[in-house]
Amino acid sequence: MRVTLSDPSLARQAGRFVWLELNYDEEANQPFLGRHGISWTPVLLVLDPEDERVTATHVGGMSLAELQRFLDQGERGFTSKEESGAKAAASRGDDAVGRGRLADGAEAYREALRIGGRRWAGRAQVTDTLVGTLLVQRDDRSCAETAVVEGPTLPRGPSFARVAHVGLGCANSGEGAPWAVAPRKTLESLAAEATTLAGLPRDDRFQLYQQLMVAAQLRGAANENVRWGKRWLKEIDAVVPSSDDERSGLDVARVDVVLLLDQPALALKPLEASERAMPQNYTSSARLARVAEAAGRYDEAVAACERGLRNVDGPIGRSGLLLTKASALRGKGELSQAKATAELALQAAQAIGNEGNRANTVKRTSDFIAGLDKAR
Description:
The chain is mostly helical. The protein has helices spanning about 1-5, 30-35, 65-80, 85-100, 100-115, 125-135, 140-150, 160-175, 180-195, 200-220, 220-235, 245-260, 270-275, 280-295, 300-310, 315-330, 335-350, 355-375; strands at about 45, 55-60.
């Protein structure tokens, strides 16, 4: 998404919008993030500067064309406050989600779909936003079931692809639960179809591959998992990054695919090259450490964590690096040092400003420490 946002053509929007980018990990930003219920990235909002009323909301990535339409939508919501029908319901949904009231937002989006009907021009976009909201709300069943009902009828484009991969991701989260099995079959077919569409944002195509790999693993279809993984990795390797942001985005995808293939060593050389190219970027060290630890290269993982810790700038990154280091130390059999490092990770996790992220990270770290205590 950073690549899209850095497109030179957006410079002409300077007279219409004031651009604000917030670091999710910085303490000073937590009041704003809390007011708007942001627990997921990326999230894009268009705000009325007078009262922070949200006139447009989007969770996830977008193509440049979609971003232009999103900005137009936000401007219309700002200048025309007396909408009616399906548009008014969708606007209420955007404002509710933008203020962190996810359940209210989801209900407003459902109302918009009911009012608008099957031929409503805004149906694909609102369905896209609805399943994204249900994902963030962690209502996996409703997310998957909505994608199954709405997805097949949507025009084939970026919103269709996102509904397919988000819905499939929600069904995958249900694993073997009865409610998840049948939707997953339908959504796998939709996601596979979506990979053939031209003009999809790269992030959406990569997320389609990711969810198709997970679905194949859940079915025990090892050959399909490898087929999707090789296709995904080939696309990653074909891109020559034009910026550090693009390099980082490709590396995030590279880590995902090699771990799903259970071949972490495939990513070591590219990630080492990225760390050399971005020596002050702690996330490049964190990705290298994670893959080295998964490959059993524990000394290399510890060293990468220590390099990252010299550059880290917030509690989310610090806790993640420390927990990876603790896991590598456990792999080396150094259980006392692993526990001491994990306790530092827990201290860092407790300083995370976002409540949901803090709770999840504290639990994960506490579970790791409990596992160490059992092993000793």
